[in-house]
Amino acid sequence: MIRLGVNIDHVATLRNARGGIHPDPVDAARLAIDAGADGITAHLREDRRHINDDDMARLQALCLEQGKPLNFEMAAVDDMAEIAIKTKPHAVCLVPEKREERTTEGGLDAAGLHNQITPIVRALADNGSRVSLFIEAVPHQITASKACGAQVVEFHTGAYAHTLDAGDTGKAEALLEAMRTGAKQADALGMEVHFGHGLTFDNVTAIAAIPEVKELNIGHFIIGEAITMGLKPAIQEMRRLIDAARHSSPILGERI
Ligand code: PXP
After folding, report:
1. What are phi and psi of 37, to 5 degrees?
2. Which of 65, 141, 201, 255 has the fewest CB atoms lying closer than 10 Å?
3. CA of 3 relative to ligand 1 center, distance in Å
4. Is the confidence at residue 83, as pLDDT, over 80?
């Protein structure tokens, strides 16, 4: 069964819009776990635009209490590594980060940043966290991730999601094929394969049907749907679609 990690960053985005304490991402994480999330994902950005240090500490306490993994997303920089080492989450995902971006726009350059990333991967892994690199599914970045010591690669599905939204099914199919090939390559190198970014009810099934996928991390769409259908039903529907994709041949862009 594919694990579903629910990213609760945007509960904090909503809270921070008013600068108060409500809604609390930790309450949302508890509800997500009750609804069937296999883990909680949160990104501590350098500018603290959504999740803050206290949220991350409380999320780790909740995950320990509930026996669920916390996936701590962060930039590959020393200050953040220090916080992750203190937090001791089950997993850390290293992502590229730019202050001016609206969201994580592309994959990490594991090849170009080998010397920066490798000691951070080692320190986090020695501290007991499973480390993944958030990359594009291109062969040299997959090989480079292995060389950096990553146990996991998470493929950035943003371009695939946007292309499908724009109605370019041919390009989306090509991107999907590259991710299928990348998943095989990473698996053959002994790394676990995850996917995330921009996944929705309409585009998740083709990704969930990739045989090597072990985990999907989904945030913005689920939190958005929580406003209309509710957080629990949104997670349950995502879970249903992911499971259904394993037993059928999903058509690109179609909900099962
Ligand atoms: N995986 C990683 C590594 C991310 O950084 C994010 C958030 O940008 C996600 C998954 C979730 O993406 P989304 O919020 O678009 O579902």
Report:
1. -65, 140
2. 65
3. 15
4. yes
Q: Is the pLDDT of residue 9 over 90?
A: yes
Identify which of 217, 218, 235 to mutate to test ligand 1's pocket (most ligand atoms within 8 A of the CB).
217
Number of domains in the chain: 1
pLDDT tens-digit map of 23-72: 999 999 999 999 999 999 999 999 999 999 999 999 999 999 999 999 99
Supply the range of the domain harboring residue 20: 3-245
Please report whether residue 179 resides in a domain: yes
User: Which atom of ligand 1 lies closest to the CA of 217?
Assistant: 10
Instruction: Tell me the CATH number at 88.
Output: 3.20.20.70
Domain membership of residue 75 (yes or no) is yes
For 37-71, letters b (16+ CB in 10 Å) and e give bbbbbbbbbeeeebbbeebbeebbebbeebebbbb
Answer yes or no: is 250 within a domain. Answer: no
Which of 73, 136, 215, 225 is catalytic? The answer is 73
Measured from CB, residues less than 6 Å from any atom of ligand 1 are 7, 43, 73, 93, 95, 103-104, 134, 154, 196-199, 217-221
- pTM for this model (two decimals): 0.96
In a domain, 251, yes or no: no
Nearest CA to ligand 1 atom 12: 197
pLDDT digits (tens, 9 = 90+) for 135-157: 999 999 999 999 999 999 999 99
